[in-house]
Every structure is written in structure tokens, then in C-alpha cells.
Amino acid sequence: MSILNQLPGILSSMLFMSIPLILAALGGVFSVRAGIMALGLESMILTGAFTAVVGSYFSGNAWIGLLCGIIGGMFFGLCHGILCIRYKVNQVISGIGLNLLATAATTLLMQIIWGNKGSSESVESIPIRLSFLKDIPIIGDIFGTQSILLLFTIILVILGWILLFKMPFGLRLRMVGENPKAASSVGIPVKRMKYIGVLICGALAGMAGAYLSIDNLNLFVRDMSASRGYIAVAIAILSRYNPIGVLVFGGLFGLSDAIQIYAQGYGVPSQLVQMIPYIVTLVVLTFGVKNIQPPAGVGEHDDE
Amino acid sequence: MKNEKLLNLLNSSSVLISFVSFVLAVLVSGVIMLLSGYDPLYAYSIIFEGSLGSLRAISNTLIQATPLIFTGLAFMIAKKATMINLGVEGQLYCGALVSAIVGMTPLGLPGFLHFIITLVSGVIAGALAGAFIGFLKVKFGSNEVITTTMTNFIIINFCDYLVNYPLKSEGAVAQTDSMLPETLLPKILSSYQITYAIVIAVIAAIVIKFILDQTRFGYEIKVVGLNMIAGETAGIHVKKIMMLGMSLSGSLAGLAGATHVMSVGKRFISGFSPGYGFSGISVSALASDSPLGIILAGIIFGALKTGSMYLNMSSKIPTEFVSVIQALVVIFVSAPLLIKSIIGLDRKPKGGK
């Protein structure tokens, strides 16, 4: 059992675990670039996970589940947007309030629908794996069992990067986040851009949640987002709000999750190894964020 | 005219905002109950009966309210010092664990001294956990919302490890040994479960009010909370205020944990807290950050919690309605503009919309 033999398995778990982090952090990037803090990510992931299961349960089709997950995430993104943009709520408090609401509401609805407050019934999960890679040595071990969503994730990161840094839309979005007054003075619809930012954020986080519930598993478990929303915020910060950086740091945090899974196989008490991803986040965030500034307009309310 | 008066009142009075927010949260939850086929009036009447309908019910309500008053105070004091302390839950675990360990270890001291040390050690444990977050913020600029969330997981998992392995008592349950009787808080009335923990909670609220209103530290916290740059210009050490604020917040959370094991748990039991730390956010929101208001808000949420457990015994209505109410209160109270528009006061004085 040399580490080399283990490596494809670890890399495979790393990819499994980093998909939701990358998707959610990418969402966070769009939100922050539009000037809205992304501390509500946790609620969008959790709701996405829940609505995905609900969609799959009632339709019997995992793709409709995925769509429902995205819509569920967008709904909480919209709530966050309305509270922050229209009602000028403190963005941190809004995020925390929505996170509390998502935990309470999903548990409540789970109990109403399935009569159980621990987990839902099993539903259809997303069936397509990248199995065409299975026969290639090593690559097949790493990628052969991955979900099609891995492919989606990579495409979305690239699209996100192009959108933010190579298209007029991205320039406008970033200007709204940096200096809403200046953006407004050159005719950019500031509020609309902010809403678009949080909606993209919600959609991506909802997809991350759907991945957790109907791809990685086939059911909803209470609080299954397990603070990934906060880890995703950390990833977004560390990546300096750049989608490519999200890919790198998302992979790193996915690796810490993968090590956790492997360490459990060696008889280390699970409570200790479960601490690993959170310790990694804490350490990296502590020593890695010096001199990283969010866009200048984040958290501010523009008065008209 | 009347509307204008009401609007002025709403602008001036955070109490009214809190009241309207609470009523709205209860109504929204009622509507959800109705839509899911339950009778909200029945549910709320049972909750009322189960939380305030008898002396025993009131005793249970106050038992539930005690940790909420502490965690509400903890969240509030950190917020005043410009820190969002989501780590109250973890700091509460620190206090509970350390108090339980000190309380179960025979120290050969007079009983009263052992009792004091048990209580104080929990407070110190919580304070250190809070100070650590403050240190990360002040020294490295780490966002405290994320560091507290991460440390919650680390602390709770570590406590879980300790009570599952090195500190586990005999038997199947993951818990420490029982604490010595002299380290437990005495009951107020012999036939009810309620202990002097509630008295400590009320005293803590009064002390915090005194600190905020009457001391230099309280004044500096207020200035920094209102305008950090102005505070710095006036010669206030903002970083020191943040550190002190977080330490004080952590010590209140530690007190919550310590008094809980010293009265309810009588030992540290794995996963003993149903999220007291997070409920503190709702408590401080409902009280709009007033220390004495937190006593009342803690009792209100304690009553809801107690009543919902009573409701759960007698019907199939899920207890999670209470968590929904708590979360909605946080959102509504933070959005006075939303409240005004819901009750129709956001219209301009003249001319249509």
C-alpha cells in the first residue's frame, strides 16, 4: 500500500470534493465583483441541495432536480439581493439570517414532505459519469467515475473568466463593484447589475448544492452543506476574486477533504480527521489573505 | 397624519421594529403551518400552554432561556465592538468542556472554592477562544465570520473526540464522568429543575449594561461601533477594543456553557447544545442589542422552544417552526425598510406611490 498506488484514488476524491467548492466559490466571485458580500452562500448551497432532491423526488428525473437546485439557489440569491440592494440591510447580517433560515426551512420542509428530520428519501441521481475515460490507465482511475458535472464545472470556470475579464458585461459588473457612483454616472444600471451578480451567484451555489445531494449522494441530509459556503467564501477571497484562482484553491481544499476521507480508512478517530478541512481553511486564510482587498464598493449602499 | 406619527415612531423606536418583526415572523410561520395542513392557532395555543401555563412550564422556559440570554449578550457585545461572532457556539462548548472537566476532578478544595473555580475556568476557556478570533482579526485581518465558522467545527469535533475517547465515562453514551455535587449550581425551588443559572444570566445582563453605559471601555466600544475612523482619530485603540470585545463575548459564551453543565447537564454530553450559540443571534436581534431587552428576548425564545417541545409530544407538528421564526426575526429586524414597506408606511406623503 504505497502512497503512489493511493494517489489516483486520492486525486479522484479530491475532484469529487472540490466540485461543489469551486462552483460555490465561482458564484461568490460574481457576487463580490458586483459589490455584494457572499456570506449567504451557505444558504444558497443548502437550498439548492434541498430543492434538487425535491425536484428529483416529484419528477423522477435527476435533470429536473438539477434545474430545481439551480432555481432554489437563485431564489435565495434573489432574497439576499433584495435585502441588500432594495432594503439596504447590512450584507453580513442578511447572509447570516438567510443561512439560519435555510437550515430551519429545509429541515422543516423535509419533515413536512418525508416525515423525517434527519434525511430525505432516496431519489434519482444524475446518472452520467465520464466513463468513456475509464479504460485509459491512471487517467481512467482518476476521472472514470467522475460526474458529468466536473466537465460542466470546468467549462463554467472558463466561461466565468471570459465573462468577467474579456467581455463588456464583466467590465461593467466589476465597475459596479468597485465604484457604483462612477458606474452609475456612465449610465450602467447599477442595481440591475448587482441583481444579476447575486442571481449568477445563487445559480452556481444552487448547482453546487444539487451536486452534493443528487450527484454525490441521492438524498438530502440535514445541514448537508456543512459550512462549505463559508469555505467557498474563503476560496473566493484567496483566489483574489478570479475564477482561475478559484479552480486552484478549490482543488486545494478538495484535497484536504480527500485526505480526510483517506485518513478515516487508517483508523484515525473520525472526529479528528473531520477537523482537517476546517483547520486548512483557517490556516490558509490566516496566512494567505494579507493584502487581498475586496472591490472597493463591497458592502456599501448606493443612495440615489 | 396618523401614518406619519406611526412612521416617526418606527424611526425612533427600535422596540416597535422588534415587535412588528416578531409578529410578522410568527405570522409567516403560521401561514407555512396552515399551508402544510396544520392548525397554527392550535399550535400556538399549545406552545403558550406548554411554556407559560404552569409553574413547571415557566420553570422549563427559564431553563431554556438561560443559555439564550448568555449567547444573546455574547453576540451583542461582539457586534458592538464591530465583530460578528458566529463562534459563540464553539466558545460555549469550550466553556462547557473545561467546566465539566474541572468539576469532575477531585481537587481536595473546600466545596465552595471548587464551585467558583469550576465556573471561572469555563469563563476563561470561552474568553480565550473568543480572544483567539480577535487576535486573528487584529493581527492577520482574517474575516471573523469565516474563522469563527471554521473554529466552531474544529472545537465541536475536538470535544466530540475527547468525550468519545480519552474522557469517555463507562457506558455507551459519549459523555464525561459526572461532576462532583458541590460544583453544581443549586436549585431555586426543590421541586422544580430551575437553578440559580438564570440569576447569573440576569446579573450578567445588568453588568453588561453597566459596562456599556458607565465605563470608559463601554464608551469606547460605542464610538468604535458608530464610526471606526472617528474612534481612531479620537485616540481609541480600535484593535484593543476588538480584542477586548471578542474576549468579553467569548467569556459570556463560556459562561453559557459552564452554567449549562453545572445545572442541566451535570457533565459534558456529546452534542448537548441544540445551537444555543446561533439562537443568540436571534435573541440579540429581537432585543435590538439592548442588554436588558436580551433578558426578555431570551425568555421569549426560551418559551417558544419549551412550548414547541411540549407541542411535539402532543402532536405531529414539527418543532422546526421555532427555528424558522428565529431566523425570520433576524432578517426582519435587520431590515427596518422592509418592515415599513410591509405595513404600508413607505409611501411618500404626497401623490400615489
Structural account:
- Chain A has about 300 residues and is mainly alpha-helical.
- Chain A has one domain: Orthogonal Bundle (ABC transporter involved in vitamin B12 uptake, BtuC), CATH 1.10.3470.10.
- Chain A is about 70% helix and about 0% strand.
- Chain A has 13 helices and no strands.
- The N and C termini of chain A lie far apart (about 65 Å).
- In chain A, about 55% of the residues are buried.
- The mean pLDDT of chain A is about 90.
- Chain B has about 350 residues and is mostly helical.
- Chain B has a domain of about 240 residues.
- Chain B is about 75% helix and about 0% strand.
- Chain B contains 15 helices and no strands.
- In chain B, helix 2 runs antiparallel to helix 14, helix 6 runs antiparallel to helix 11 and helix 8 packs across helix 9.
- The C terminus of chain B is likely disordered.
- Classes of the chains: A mainly alpha (about 300), B mainly alpha (about 350).
Query: Strand tally of chain A, please?
Result: 0
Q: Structural class given helices, strands, pairing of chain B? A: mainly alpha
Largest sheet of chain A: none
**Tally the helices of chain B: what do you get?**
15
Number of alpha- plus pi-helical segments of chain A: 13
Considering the protein shown, what is the CATH homologous superfamily of chain A? ABC transporter involved in vitamin B12 uptake, BtuC
Mean pLDDT of chain B: 90
Number of strands of chain B: 0
Radius of gyration of chain A over all CA atoms, rounded: 19 Å
Euclidean distance between termini CA atoms of chain A: 65 Å
- Domains counted in the coordinates of chain A: how many? 1
What is the N-to-C succession of helices and strands of chain B?
Answer: HHHHHHHHHHHHHHH
Instruction: Let me know the average pLDDT of chain A.
Output: 90
CATH topology of chain A: ABC transporter involved in vitamin B12 uptake, BtuC
Strand content of chain B: under 5%
Q: Spans of chain B with pLDDT under 50 lasting ≥5 residues?
A: 349-353
Overall shape of chain A: it is globular
Most extensive protein-chain contact, per-chain counts:
A-B, 44 and 42 residues
